[in-house]
Amino acid sequence: MRGITNVVGIILIVLGIIFLAYQGFTYTTQEKVAQIGDVKITADKEKSVYFPPVMGGAALVAGIVLVLIGRRGGGTS
Questions:
Q1: How confident is the model at residue 71, as a pLDDT?
Q2: How distant is the alpha carbon of residue 46 from its chain centre?
Q3: Does an H or E element contain 47, and which?
């Protein structure tokens, strides 16, 4: 159980750092605007996904806590 706690803690630390460094990303999708017979009209739409800094900080803190618990041996089964 101690190893799982450390692994989950490290994953949360890495995710927290990523969420704090990259506070979101943007991607483009094609949406059909109209179709007349065989002719299709599409439009590119940009969509954004934002990560709140609180989420990154919470993941970072939770990861550090889990790693400390795992090192103490508190995660016994």
A1: 83
A2: 19
A3: strand 39-50
